[in-house]
Amino acid sequence: MNYWINSNSGDYILEHDGKYYLHLISRWVDNVYFPFEKIEITKSQFEAIKGFIPIKKKKLFSRSSKKYAPTLSDGTKGRSERVRVPSISESRDKILRELGL
Fold first, then answer.
1. Residue 19, CA distances (Å) to 13, 43, 46, 49 in order
2. Is residue 78 a contact partner of residue 22, using CB atoms and an 8 Å limit?
3. Are 52 and 5 in contact (CB under 8 A)?
4. Inter-residue contact 94 to 86 (CB < 8 Å)
5. CA nearest 25: which of 16, 38, 14?
6. What's the whole-number mean pLDDT along residues 92-96?
7. Tell me, what's the pLDDT at 3?
8. Whole-number Å distance between alpha carbons of 49 and 54
């Protein structure tokens, strides 16, 4: 199993046996509650999502009390937002652009 985390949102991706699962953690944004979600994504969608870095399993779950939000240019914490999953056609277009087609 492999893991990737988005340090600005806390959302993470798990890869197991060639299948990718995006885990969107629960959070409050502007007094609106977003519950935990687990979404199966394709490899091309995984490759099109930006901002995820590899992490070891033991480090992933030890960070649960951390406040996830981007650090702004003045050093303060910004707002945490959910990761946007590109559609299959958007990820296909990205791959074609990279190949120069």
1. 10, 8, 10, 15
2. no
3. yes
4. yes
5. 38
6. 81
7. 94
8. 13
DSSP state of 75: S
Report the distance separating Cα 51 and Cα 82, nearest Å.
Answer: 12
pTM of the model: 0.74
Tokens of 95: 């791959």
- 98, pLDDT greater than 70: yes
- Mean pLDDT to the nearest integer, 26-51: 87
Q: Which residue has the tokens 């296909």?
A: 92
Of these ranges, 10-24, 58-72, 87-101, the one predicted with the greatest mean pLDDT is 10-24
User: How far, in Å, CA of 95 to CA of 66, rounded?
Assistant: 34
Q: Residue 85 and residue 15: Cα distance in Å, rounded? A: 16
Q: What pLDDT shows up at residue 69? A: 66
- Any idea what DSSP says for residue 18? T
CA 44 distance to own-chain centroid: 14
Residue with tokens 């992490």: 55
